[in-house]
Queue: 2 jobs
Job 1
Amino acid sequence: MDTKKRILDEALTLFSEKGYANVFVADIAEAVGIKAPSLYKHYKSKRDIFNAILNEMKLSYDKQAAMLNMNGNDASADAKVFSAVSEDSLVEMGVGLFRFFLHDGYTQKFRKMLTIEQFSNPELAELFTKQYIDDSLKYQSAMFAILCKQGILKGDNPQIMALQFHSPIYMLLTMCDREPQREAELTALLEQHIRQFSKLYTKEEQQ
Amino acid sequence: MDTKKRILDEALTLFSEKGYANVFVADIAEAVGIKAPSLYKHYKSKRDIFNAILNEMKLSYDKQAAMLNMNGNDASADAKVFSAVSEDSLVEMGVGLFRFFLHDGYTQKFRKMLTIEQFSNPELAELFTKQYIDDSLKYQSAMFAILCKQGILKGDNPQIMALQFHSPIYMLLTMCDREPQREAELTALLEQHIRQFSKLYTKEEQQ
DNA sequence: GTCTATAAGAAGATAGAC
DNA sequence: GTCTATCTTCTTATAGAC
């Protein structure tokens, strides 16, 4: 119905599978169910479609990020949850979040598109690192800092803790993006990583 | 002089910067210093050049991998080195290896090219995961298994240890690929990660 | 093996009818 | 807003002289 929006959706799907240069305007049009020239009534060029996707995803990301710091769902609150839950429920949370990032259509497609296009200009490179690494590390650092200060975890370098917690998860995610058939195997590794991380950084006297 | 070889070099450079589809045969020819039609005396098509790069890099990788298991430079020998060295020299080794992977022309270009092209076919996806993740994890798992058995490290899951050691390093490497200007900052994190990992898994009584 | 000229076709975008 | 027809440009690849 909303053709303008449907164009973005189909274009994102195609860009995430083949990359910008390998998707032709006619492909996008066909996926939407119209002819290529009709598409130019909605967007003035192919690049314009790409930019619109980028803007939409940036807005949606910023909205999410803002919510994390406004609704009480911030690092401090998460730290409270973290400190209260068992290792099992930590695993459950981690695996749930992992599955969401892996299977949510927009999230996965945008991640794959940025992966393909990350070297095509510096702006995309920055966006990639910000959304998938730096912001996560910042957030988790804050959380680990609180947990360490409270004496619940025993590390003295929250930034490195965040790096060591986040990077295995991200690596497993990108492996699933490449080879979806390995999801079960890699999810098992994710679970073991979380358990091991939890053991490593939990104060002995609290185990 | 060896035009055939120079074509592969220049093509790899261009593919790693712009991706296969954004590089034109004329671009490669110009980089080599000839005209596009001359190039067809050496390779029968653009795709043929890509495949030749792939084959060459696969061969060189397999050669390297084979050496690791034949010349005594295997996981067992590395474990001996690992167990004998101080934390400082471990950091030095790690940072040295990191800098090599980051700056070695072929290594970096091929990694970037595969990153861009990884979703274009399942064979490339498999190659990517094998070369940058699975093989490293296998190798490091074997090494950590030995070190744990010898009582030098205290973990009980070498595979997860390898995941936790390798994935931060790989993540920092890809960050440098995207934003080379951050190399110093990220190398500092690498050092802290290695020190922290070493402390976490070293038996207390040996510190 | 390198060149110039050119074929053959693909792809982005526009014109103008409906 | 969608279509058919078409323009223009770009890109791969070949032909054939040197």
Job 2
Amino acid sequence: MPADLTTQTRKEREFQVREELILTHARRLLIERGFQAWNMEQLAEAVEYSKGTLYQHFTSKEDLVLAVATDSLRNRADWFEKAARFQGSTRERSRAIGFACCEFAEKCPEYFHVEMMLKSASFWEKASEERRQAHSFQGARCWRILNHIVVEAMALNEMPRDSFTAEEATFALVSVTVGSHVMTQEPQIRVQAGITNPMQAVRINQDIVCDGLNWKPLFRDHDYSKTDQRIIAEVFPEAVNWYKA
Amino acid sequence: MPADLTTQTRKEREFQVREELILTHARRLLIERGFQAWNMEQLAEAVEYSKGTLYQHFTSKEDLVLAVATDSLRNRADWFEKAARFQGSTRERSRAIGFACCEFAEKCPEYFHVEMMLKSASFWEKASEERRQAHSFQGARCWRILNHIVVEAMALNEMPRDSFTAEEATFALVSVTVGSHVMTQEPQIRVQAGITNPMQAVRINQDIVCDGLNWKPLFRDHDYSKTDQRIIAEVFPEAVNWYKA
Amino acid sequence: MPADLTTQTRKEREFQVREELILTHARRLLIERGFQAWNMEQLAEAVEYSKGTLYQHFTSKEDLVLAVATDSLRNRADWFEKAARFQGSTRERSRAIGFACCEFAEKCPEYFHVEMMLKSASFWEKASEERRQAHSFQGARCWRILNHIVVEAMALNEMPRDSFTAEEATFALVSVTVGSHVMTQEPQIRVQAGITNPMQAVRINQDIVCDGLNWKPLFRDHDYSKTDQRIIAEVFPEAVNWYKA
Amino acid sequence: MPADLTTQTRKEREFQVREELILTHARRLLIERGFQAWNMEQLAEAVEYSKGTLYQHFTSKEDLVLAVATDSLRNRADWFEKAARFQGSTRERSRAIGFACCEFAEKCPEYFHVEMMLKSASFWEKASEERRQAHSFQGARCWRILNHIVVEAMALNEMPRDSFTAEEATFALVSVTVGSHVMTQEPQIRVQAGITNPMQAVRINQDIVCDGLNWKPLFRDHDYSKTDQRIIAEVFPEAVNWYKA
DNA sequence: CATGAATGAGCCTTCATTCAT
DNA sequence: TATGAATGAAGGCTCATTCAT
């Protein structure tokens, strides 16, 4: 193996490692303080590199934050994929995806802190085109995976196709999940709703929507505890923490 | 009646009028540009008062923005109250509240632009205690109104009480509504879900959740178009715009 | 006289005074250090105002520097105008304008330091449209004044019209003057050319060009010392310094 | 001959070649963007060497730019020398040098972009002593060549020696040339003076000055078109482009 | 000798907030 | 009470230069 090839590979590896280090610390700051309440100087100190080095990886603060968000989204899509491969009925698989959403909220809480930045035009303008596309791509992956299960459910007559389109059903599931996570973060709402286990609350809402879509077998007719145990064991063995809490 | 008392009262009236003027323009800026992309100078110009005068009404930019948000929330609670007085079954009244949510999203779009700020600790720290409480108060009003209808529905056996608690049901409705509004704003989601009428999409999701809660009469068993016409006519006569679109 | 009018006027006056103070110090820095070797912080310290105040007068460092340059140009045009009103033959009046050029170089040396910035596109982009136009306007004034004298000289047959156009003649005078000032600043050239009095050197060159244009009465046929004394006495009584040196 | 000496020589040759490569690209950047709007990184990319290598040739960006300028100046001096050897009267030879100036402006336009930097003390401080001297040396060469022709013209009574000294005459020619090039670059001046062919405008001004110096035979008495054709053919056969334009 | 990752001083600009008038 | 000039901290980003490999 030629020396320069090794060198190249090592440097690339180091570059990758450094980029991940930066992303990790940026994610932490995002979780702890949101977007505004930290600056590139502080991040540089945290990663023990200089500001200049940061800018060799990312073209702007926004570009960096978008990269964090996209990373999270990639995780989510990966979890979605794993969940979609769960052996079971379509409703059981959608349930597995529900778990994936909770896993996402648990492991990538910063995403919800960034979400609104993603709606501001000025934010996107400051990010590089490359990262914009990467983000869209991961978003589309998530949607597609869930949508395919819904389409299959309709094909198998496990969900009626006369009330809602597959897209409406997918949209309902996406909406209730995002909304539940958002609401779950509001201290006041938690008090009023008497929520002690946020993830549980999210999953209940997903069940309500699935039942509302008449996705068989209905939650109110069926005991999903066995399924849940299998999902945890087979798909998210590391998820016990939030599931038990 | 002493002259100075009259003066005082007039001054108070003028103060009120000015405060509302400021809030109106701040709301507009919030809608048009979000939180960052305008400053107190520009707001002062817009209201044709000086910056100093602005600070006689609000202790900081955050305080001002929170006041705008609270105003919106007060509107929402007011609309909820009107909707709750609608003559009809509990499900019909919840439906009226669904209308109120859409009315809110239509008339107070800035609220969604401010939402994230409301989650940042540093934001709340800069607002006055007075406004923080006012905000919480209006939030609680909204919750309570919807919650009462759910409780009543359960009392009347229009919604089963064995599957979910009243709080769970309320939370599900709140979550799906917020989530739907949020998702509805994402261009990519709109494309993927084929959404042309966002408000319609929100209301479909509310129906799905209500059906999921088994709130009778179910949407899939019942034609609500007459109810909807009545809601519009009796509660939101001015809502036609977004409803027709 | 209403109180607020007085106030207004006083504030405006103060604003003007401050703007001039800023320009004066900026001019000094430009002379001493060129464009790069000072920053807005240092200027702010020099004028004993804050950076923010600087930016209430000028939109950028470039805008400020352009304002200095335009001020100088305005002076030049004013001096040109005064010179053009000198009582005498066209050649004598052009001679008076030659004095004005020297006066300009003496009183506004920073202009030559800024000149090249004025050729960089990125410089102009950062200045406000308003100042760009003001600069062009003063430049055009200078040209016009000199050009009119040349045209008149041709009309009176004091300069032949068969060799060069009026514009060519004007351009030659402008070029030799600018070039002489530039070259005069080069220490090496001064040594090689044995220049002790730069202004004198500039004026000799102007004479050479006028003679080259065959502008009567020729320098080599005529003693202009009386004219020069009159110009100094009547047009630039304060110019003695550089003239005597 | 020892092996390492050969190697050394080859390495030296390569070093030279690389230095020229760097200078060539730096000149291009100077022409295209001036001094500020490019950085060492971009130059390194352009020459396909690393930044470190750049710094083995030049001690700083300023040092590098000065080297470019000196190179140009060396060209100018070389062209002056060739022109000075032109067979003809002194005035014809000065005419050939006028051509050389145009050739210089055409082939080394970056020199005019760098000129101002050369006046800033901070620029010179950052360049190496070696390069500073090299630059002065080439500047002096140019002056000397022209000056010798003037001296000779006076010796031969082709130019009167009673009006101006040889140095004054040389200085006038240098000044008008530089000034004409500078003015010729100003868009506004070009418009006002109706200049379509900048080089032509420069040469007209040189003629005016020579006539002003009474350098025989005068331009207005003599047809120089034959001379010009010879100069082009014999001294600057490659100059046709700008001359014809 | 060549490399290019790492550095960090430096700069322009913004804007919420204050306070003398 | 209303004003708006003045403030100055803060922050994103650049880039010439260095030096370990």
